[in-house]
Amino acid sequence: MTDRLDLYFDLRLALRLAEHALDCDQHAPAFCDGDEGKDCPGGLVWAKDWGTYLMSTGRPALPGDDGSPNLVAYAHGWAPGDDHPDATDTPLGGDDFSEQLHLNDPYGAHGQSVLELLRQGNREHYRYLLLRVTPETVTVQLSRALP
Fold first, then answer.
1. pTM for this structure?
2. With contact defined as beta carbons under 8 Å apart, do 42 and 102 qualify?
3. Which of 85 and 18 is assigned the larger pLDDT?
4. What top-level branch of life does the organism fall under (predicted)?
5. Closest by Cα among 138, 144, 94 to 6
6. Distance in angstroms (rounded) separating the CA atoms of residues 124 and 74
7. Tens of pLDDT, residues 12-58
8. Is 72 left (phi over 0), alpha (psi -120 to 50) or beta?
């Protein structure tokens, strides 16, 4: 099993999802342990099932550009049908999950919130929101390019 997995999400799309979550008065309830059934105002859902992706907690959902009912940002190389490693052999594990990323909570290496990082990255022309996943932690960073 690998000790670390880096997931790269399109930064502009992640910021679009975050801004949608912030603009909504209603939010989807959480489905993860500890937060189950509670609303997550101003957040992103990080999920893994047929791929791994981010989506807004805001309701009504933000429709996808392709006509789908919910816009999502897939991690680069982790959309359905992509040739990615078996998730069982990564810190993601084999089970499906969803995790709330509260936009104002400090996830970054320097204590910045997800929202601060997204906005900074957009201003400074970064291309990717990077989730660095280990068995113990998830940190949120910016990246200008794929590895």
1. 0.87
2. yes
3. 18
4. Bacteria
5. 138
6. 22
7. 999 999 999 999 888 887 665 455 555 555 689 998 888 899 999 99
8. beta
